[in-house]
Amino acid sequence: MRSYTSTAVALALDVDPKWVDNVLSRYPLERHARGRQGVARRLTPAAVLTLSVAQDLHRESSMTLARATRLAGALCADPSGRVELADGLILILDRDQRMARVLRRLALAGENAVRAPRGRPPRRRRFEHVV
């Protein structure tokens, strides 16, 4: 299955890459590969969907990011895309529409996200003879 770097996800969600890393560090998302230090995080499309829903819940309803992340995880995990918040109060997610939007944005971001070279740059030769 395809996965995306946190930089590409940040471009797709129009947020700072540091925000993505902070959310992934503080709040557990089921569908992302946890890496060790020095290894870029990779997110599945399902994890990006959860992150996108959490971002909108946080922004639009002014709920804490912790609560928004939990709700987004529950919405994305439920096959019907429904979560009952209270008696008679149901939150519904149109998963197909939202996933299509996320995938479109990831495709655009993937073209623009260039991976930075890591490590020491290659040694340059001091003198090159051109014949």
- Uncertain stretches: none
Largest sheet: 3 strands, antiparallel
Shape: elongated
Mean pLDDT: 84
Q: Quick one: how many beta strands?
A: 5
Order of helices and strands: EHHEEHHEEH
Output the strand order for the largest sheet: 1-3-2
How many helices does DSSP assign? 5
Class by SSE composition:
mainly alpha
Please tell me how large the radius of gyration is: 19 Å
Portion in helices: 40-55%
Beta-strand residue fraction: 5-15%
What would a concise description of this structure say?
The chain is mainly alpha-helical and 131 residues long. The chain has helices at 6-13, 17-26, 45-61, 65-77, 95-112, and strands at residues 4-5, 32-33, 42-43, 82-86, 89-92.
Report on the architecture of this protein.
There is one protein chain. With 131 residues, the chain is mainly α. The chain is built from five helices and five strands, in the order βααββααββα. The chain has a three-stranded antiparallel beta sheet with strand order 1-3-2. Strand 2 (32-33) and strand 3 (42-43) form a beta hairpin. The longest helix is centred in the C-terminal third of the chain and has 18 residues, at 95-112. The chain is elongated and about 80 Å long.
